[in-house]
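User: Hello, can you help with two protein structures?

Assistant: Certainly.
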Amino acid sequence: MRRWVRAGSWALCALWLAVLAAAAIWLAVRLTPLRTVTVAGQTVKVGAAPPDWRMSGPGDLQLFGQTLPTEATFSGPIRPLLKLTHITESSQVAQLVRSGNHEQLEITAGHSLASGWVLYGVQETAVAAGIMAVALLAWAGLRRFPRRRTLGILFCGVAVVAVANATGFYLLASQTPDALRHVHSLADLVGRSTAANVPRTEGPDLTDVTAVVLGDSTAAGTGNRPLVDPDALDRACRRSADSYAGVLARTNDRKVLNLGCAGATVHDGILGVQILGDQVAPPQFAEAQRATRAGVVIVSVGANDVGWADLVQLCAKAPSCDDKASTAFFQNRLSRFALDYRSLLHHLAGMPQHPKVVVNEYYDPFGSDVSCLRGEGLTVAKVRVLRARLSVLNDVLREGATSRGFTAVRPDFTGHELCSAQPYVQGPTDRAPLHPSAAGQLAIAVADQRALSR
C-alpha cells in the first residue's frame, strides 16, 4: 500500500513540475528580450512566437505594429517571431548590391536570422530555468522543506525545463535554423513588393515643381471648391482648389504638384494605375518622378486601403461595430496595407533627390458630441470603436514613417469635429461626408508647414 501511495506522490509531483515548467516556458517567451540582428540593411529582432499545439505553421512577423504570418513555414510548436524595427540601407549592403554580389547578401541575411534564433533559444532557456527556480524556491520555503529536499526539487525542476525547451527548440524545431538560412531577403518573410519597379511616365522633367502630394481624397480635397480650370483627370479624381496642397502652394509661393485622387490606394493609385470610369490615372509615384527637383513629398494614404468608408457604413447599420466579422475585415485589410505601405516607403526612400517625406496621419472626425449623427445610426459606443480603429491605422502610418526616418504629422481637429459649432469635417449632408472642409484642409496645411519648418 505504501508503495502505491509513494508512486502516486511521485506521479503527482512529476505532473506538478511539468505544469510549472510549461508555465515557466510560456512566461519566458514573453519576457526574454528579442535578439537584434541586421538583415539586408534592416534591423530585425528575433524571438519566439507564443507556443501553440500545431506541429508546423508560419511564424509571426511584426511590421509597423501589425502581426502577420510569415511566408515561410516552420516545424514544431515553438516558431520564430520576427520584428522589423528599423529600415535603412547600410553602406555594406549598398556595396554588395552595386557589385552584384547578391549571393553574399543572401548568405548574410539567412545566417544572421538563424544565429539570432539559436542565441534567443539559449537565452530563453536560461530565463525559463530562472523562473522555474524562483517558483520552486518559493514553494519549498512555504512548505518548509529541508535543504536537501529543496535542492533535489530545484534540480529536477530546472532539468524538466531544460529538457522541455530542448525538445521545443532543438528537437521539434530542429529545422528552423535551416529554414531561416534559406531566407534570402525580407521579401521571403513578408511577400514581394506591391510593385517592384514603377517607371516614370513619359514627358519632360517638371523642374519648376518643388513639392509633390500623393494620396487619396483627403489629399485631393474632395467635396470642396473645384479647380478653376480642371482637366478630365482632375474632375475624375475630384481635386479641389481648397486642398492642403493648394494652401501650401499659395502660402509659400511655390509650385506644388497635387496628384491626390479620390479612391486611391497604395496598390491602385500610387504605385499602380487607377481606373476612374473612362479615365485611367497613371501611378502617382510614376508622375512624381518627373519632378526631379522636388525637395518635399507629402503622403496621405491608408483610409481606402483599410476600407474606412465601408467600416463606417457597416458600423452605422449594424447593432454594434466591434463584432467578429467587422473586426476580422479590418485586421485583414490593415495587414495587407502594412505590406503595401512598406513597399511605398521603399520607393520614396529610393528617390534620387532624397526629398523630405512627410506622412500625414488621419484627423479624428469625431468629438464627444455625436448628437448630429444619431440619425445616421452612429452612437457614442459605435464612435468609440471607429476612433480606436482609426488610431490603430495612424499607429501603422507613424511607425512606418519613423522606421525610414520620415516625418509623421497628425492634424489636430480638436474642438472642430463633427457636431461642433465650427466643424473642420464635412457633415452627413455635404458633398463628401467625413472629409475635411476647406477649414480642415487649412488645418492640415498648417500641420504640414510646421513639420517642414522644423
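That covers the first. Now for the second protein you mentioned:
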Amino acid sequence: MSTKSRYRTIGVAGAGAFGTALALAAARAGRRVLLWARDAETVASLRGQREAPRLPGAKLAEAIEAVSDIAALGSVEALILAVPTQALRSASTLLAPALPAGLPVISAAKGIEQGSGRFTTQIIAEVLPQAVPAVLSGPSFAADIARGLPTALTLASADAALAKSLAEALNSSALRIYHSNDPRGVEIGGAAKNVLAIAAGIAIGLGLGESARAALVARGFSELRRFGEAHGAQAETLMGLSGLGDVVLSCATAQSRNFAYGQALGQGKTPAEASGGKLAEGAFTASVLVEMARAEAIDMPIAEAVASVIAGSVGVREAVADLLARPVRAEN
C-alpha cells in the first residue's frame, strides 16, 4: 500500500492558529482532515462560517471537518497534537480513550514541560503508551502555512520509516516536509530557539541595535548546540530546519510571539504585561531549560539571563550588563 493511500485521514487536535494552518496544509496534501476542538462553540463557528477565527481570511477547505466529539478521532490514521506544551499532557489524557493502538501521534508543540522536564514525545509516550510518538517542527508562521506560502518543516520519529512515510503523506507543493530519526534534536531546537528569540527581542526593545542582536543569536545558538549535544541530539539536526532555521526566523521579527514578548520586556513592560494575552512558549521553557542545563553543568548564560528577567529577579538592563561583564574567553 502506498503512503498516500495509507494516511487518508489525518486528525488535528487543537483549532488554534497553528493547528488550523496544519489542517489546511494536510488538506492541500490530499488528506481528509478531522479538526478537533474541545470548545463546541468554536466547532460550531468553524462549521458554520468555514473561517478560522485565529487566521483572518483563511477559509477551511471542504476536506476539513471540525469536530468536538473525541470519538470521531478513532477513525484517523495519524494525529497531530497542535496544543501548547504545557497543555499537551492534559490534552493527551483527554483524547487517550478514543485513539487506536499503534496510532502515529505527532507533536507540533515547541517547548519543555515545566516540573517534569519532559520533551513532547516523552509526554506522548507516557500518556499514550499505545501510540507511536513523532514531532513536527521548523521555521514557520501559521499565517504563512495557511496562505500556502512556501514553507519547510522537519518531521522526526525514532522509527525512521514512519517519519519518512508521514512526511510523504503531508508533503505538498507549498509545504516541504523533511524526515528525520532524531526527534530529540528536533525538540531541543524548537524549545531552545524560543528562549533565544526572547533574548533577541529584549535587545531590540532596549535599542541595542542589530549588531547586539546578531551577537546574541550567534552566542545563543552555541548554547543551543551545547545543550543539544549533551542530550544526544545529532549535530546535523541542530544545524537544520528545526534548529538553526527556526532560530533565524524567530529571532528576526516581531511576528514571532517570543520575539515580540522579549521586545516588550526590553521596552519596560513586566512579564505579565509583555505577553499581551498571547502565548509565548519560551516564557515557560526558559526556567526548565536552565534547570536542565545546570543539572548537566552546561554553560547557558543567555538562557539564564532570560529566565532571570522573566522570574523578576533581575531587570533587563542589569541582565545585559551581567552578560557584557563576563570574563573574556575563547569563542569555542
